[in-house]
Amino acid sequence: MAMIIEGEERIEAPIGRVWEALNDPEILKQCIPGCESLEKKSDTELEAVVTLKIGPIKAKFNGQVELKNLKPPHSYTIQGEGKGGIAGFAKGGADVTLKEDGPNLTVLTYEAKADVGGKIAQLGSRLITSTSKKLAGQFFSSFNEKVSNG
């Protein structure tokens, strides 16, 4: 079951700082909802453990995250796949683009694609889509708070 989630954040920070934060495992870990650990395996590969509750199902996902198509400081693709045991799996990616809007303002836009399977997929597309949108929104708004001048 696949879905697409799009959004935009206006971040009060120079583009270079936003780019650095997008590549900083410590910052990403603090912004990913339910993230228990995020470890850097190489410059572009990370390993994550994330616990999520989707409707009545609570699952712990062990996943691989990869950064691809890096075009500093303007865009990259973040892709991940997590296995949640009997709950199923989740995989997805987001194309993230940064655009300068003056010296101290960066516009971040994202288009994320997510796909879930297994028990979670049986919960119905409305619940999964609304949960995914909420999680993506939470991630990017936390990211905005952490990175913006303040």
Automatic annotation (TrEMBL):
Alphabetized SUPFAM superfamilies for the sequence: Bet v1-like (SSF55961)
Protein name in the entry: Carbon monoxide dehydrogenase subunit G
